[in-house]
Amino acid sequence: MGAARISTAESGRLLLRVLCGVLSVALAHEGENLSGLSNNPDKSIFAVRENSTTCLMVEFAVKFLVPYDVLALNGIDLITEQASFTLPRSAEIEGKCGSADSEIHISWKNKEFTLRIYFSKEFRDKGLEVWKINKVQFVYDTSETAHFINAYNPGKHTASSHRLSALVTPAGRSYVCAAQQTLTLISSDHQKGVTVSMYDVQIQPFDITSDFVFSEPYKCITDQRERLEETLPIVLGVILGLIIVITLAIYHFHLKLSTPVPQLPRDRSLYKNM
User: Fold this and answer.
1) What pLDDT, in 10s, does the model give residues 206-216?
2) What is the pTM of this model?
3) Where are the extended beta strands (E) located within the chain?
4) Burial of 72 per CB tally in 10 Å (0-12, 13-18, 19+)
5) Cα 13 from Cα 7, distance rounded (Å)
6) Per-residue pLDDT tens over the stretch 243-252
7) Tell me, what DSSP letter sits at residue 264?
């Protein structure tokens, strides 16, 4: 009986593991690399899909600037070098979508490098619902010799953001920004500052209504300001031209009114002298 009870308990646990495994497969989120659709060789397009429908999509170019230590020529002191590289278009994608929290993990070189971006929704003043990036992590391995040359004490490190609230966008819309967006992450490698720069960005982590299609864009303030700076001289030039034309017209009209009109003599006999 005891043996039978143990066997039944083990069978129950085994069944539970199988059910959990099936459930995890059913809830798995599929990552899609769509970078081949971009004409820009520096730009990547990644999507996370749930139930064969896009639930998160990012399109951007990303550059990393990572400081690391190397041994000085005297064999005693340490000096800091900078590794600079970009996000490859061939990266692998994992992610998770939720109603209020979503995330995407972008890995390459057998996960020697992983960029993790976390999104969340929240309500702001007057009940306005927005989404934002609330955390960014970058995992890198200084043992990778293509970028980290002669690294001292090489190994894996994680750089993370601190109290981040970036790319704040109204819910139901995608964030669009051609200008460079720069984040500084603090690394576990002696608190070094890792710079992550994103540009030509379009991101939407929630409320995608059409598969592989971004919703209505929300342009970043930097792009709006740059567009204003480009169009302002043209607008001012048009206004100045109109002012000049109006001024000349008024001046001409004033001259016409102020010039005395010659009076013809009433005595017809005086016409002979004219």
Assistant:
1) 999 999 999 99
2) 0.73
3) 30-33, 44-50, 53-71, 78-86, 92-96, 101-108, 113-123, 129-141, 156-160, 166-170, 174-177, 181-187, 193-204, 217-219
4) exposed
5) 10
6) 777 777 776 7
7) P
